[in-house]
Amino acid sequence: MNHTENNMQSNQKQYVAPLFESFTLGKLELASRIVMAPMARGFSPDGVPGPEVADYYRRRAEQQVGLIITENVSIPHASANQDPANSPHFDSVAARAGWKHVVNEVHRVGGKIMPQLIHAGIARENFPQPEGAAPSIGPSGIDVYGEVKGETMTVQQIRDVVQAFADAALQAQQLGFDGIELHGAHGYLIDQFLWETTNQRSDEYGGSIANRVRFAVEVVEACRRAVGPDFPIVFRFSQWKYPVYTAKLAHNVEELAQLLQPLAEAGVDIFHASTRRFWEPAFDGSPLSLAGWAKQITGKAVITVGSVGLKQDFTEFFASGADAEQQGSVSVLTERLQNGEFDLIAIGRALLADPEWAAKIRDGRLDELKPFHAEAVGKLY
């Protein structure tokens, strides 16, 4: 390696160094600020993650990923699992044994791991269900297009689902996970309650923002009671719903505060602000991202996510000397991290395609990065 190449690699390492600082929150200690974003994999037949799933997560944990958030794990409720043939759960001895092996493998290489707990709600209708399956349910039986696709939940069903989330949280703790993430984004059940389009209820769970957030608050409170004060709870939320990318939970900062403050008070430790592009302003009149507003409103730790590592200029930045203002570049990411806009950075498809992505970024081995291709979705690299 010549002098110029040495200088370039040194420059690269300087820019990415903040991504590899440690992070501590209570008893949770992470070796880096990089989080593996939850991504559905569909490689758990009958809900059981096998050894290849454990290897898949371990490979990321041993390559500088500070925290693994797993693919969504269905809570123990008859209508929860979107894809019962292939999506994981905790509901059987075999499934729990499989997850225990996953946890052990991640811990063996010094990583930390949390399951993403989910109830699909009406979104379950996007997958074929086996004959005799329980009906799909939601706050109003309405999907993201405003069409009736299932049954409206009774208050008793709401209570049952709240308890099922708490049961899953306790199971996760007993299996040795390092915390849990509650999936309150992208048009799944918790998000269906939060969004006025899918929540047309006229009781205490519908109408005002305070009422629409009630179900999510009860889920968080129940999970907190189940796991105690020191077990981290992450809450993922989003403005957009799949595939309605223009959706808005909150139209301004005041509405966002009405959603997030009750959740913080209920026991959320970390908010995971899911956006399609991490650098985009959340509201007019301010450059602050959705993650930045979540942190400013709640004072809690925040994970940002959205196209990190996917834009070509993320890696071209070093070689081309791109302007520091270039949207999505590594300089923008690390500058915002150092300025306290967010605390952790979740990586999705880039890590799906390349288990060594984080280590290669840290070491300046940018020419070795494997680009994301659609076929990566169907494999466990």
From TrEMBL:
Report the superkingdom from the record: Bacteria
Gene3D superfamilies recorded: Aldolase class I (3.20.20.70)
Tagged with keyword Flavoprotein: yes
Q: In this protein, which residues make up the domain named NADH:flavin oxidoreductase/NADH oxidase N-terminal?
A: 19-367
Task: Name the Pfam families for this protein.
Answer: Oxidored_FMN
Print the keywords alphabetically: Flavoprotein, Oxidoreductase
What span is annotated as the signal peptide, if there is one? Answer: none
Put simply, this protein is called: NADH:flavin oxidoreductase
UniProt organism field: Paenibacillus wenxiniae
